Amino acid sequence: MVHPPTCCKSSGEPCTCAAQAKCSCGQNEALNCNCEKASTENRIAGARCSCRMRPAKECNCERSAEENNVTGDACACGLRKADSCTCEKNPSAGLRDGEIDFTTTK
Hints:
The protein is mostly loops. The chain has helices at residues 16-20, 38-41, 64-67. The radius of gyration is 14 Å and the shape is globular. The model has no long low-confidence stretch (mean pLDDT 75). Residues 3-104 form the DUF7871 domain. It holds the Pfam family DUF7871. InterPro entries: DUF7871.
């Protein structure tokens, strides 16, 4: 399991919330949906939850109560707390070392 830099685990252990994240239909792991929602469920765009497996405010792991509720200062997009922004407006939330963005290549 990939350990996103924004994951709830900061000790380098496997990302528990990413392992628990499911497609909104609940049948498959997040980003591996094969139901009628697959075209939107398997797309990564915009603000994401901490594990980056689900859209912001649509977290469905054990941290959903915290992840889906923004109190206090919000980030630029308004979907995450100011200190945990995961959208494209956060310069440090882009590609990680070794990642290649194939979505913009032709």
